[in-house]
Amino acid sequence: MTLPRLDSAGFVVIRAALGPTIHLRIAIRMLGGSAERMPAHGGGSWLEQIAWGVDSVMATARLAYVGQLLGAGMVIRQQLERWTENLAYNSGTFHRPGEDRADFIERVWSVAPKQSWRMPAETPNGRYPAFVSTRSPGRVFSDLSEFLHGRLYREAVAWDAVELLAPGRMGDSEVRSAYRLIAEGMALVVERLRACVGTYAVESGRAEMESMVWQLPNATPAGSKPPPSQMLYPLTPQTGLNPVVVADSLAVHSVFERILKGERPAGRVYRDDEMLDICFLEFRARAIAGALRAFSQEKEKVGRLDFDYLLFRENHYILSSEIAALASRWEQGEIADGLAISASALRSGFWLWLEDDDRAMSMLRTVLEQVARVRTWRTKPEKARRLEASPATMPRDWLEAAGLRRLAALNRALGEMAHLRADGSWSGARDLLAELQHPESRIEDYLHTGRGHALSWMSLILAKEAVAVIGRHSAVLARSMGEIVSWFDVDEPGRDREYQRFLDFAWTLRRADIIKKDRSGPAFRRAQLRKLFGEPPVPFRPAVLIGDPEVGM
Question: pTM for this structure?
Answer without folding.
Answer: 0.90
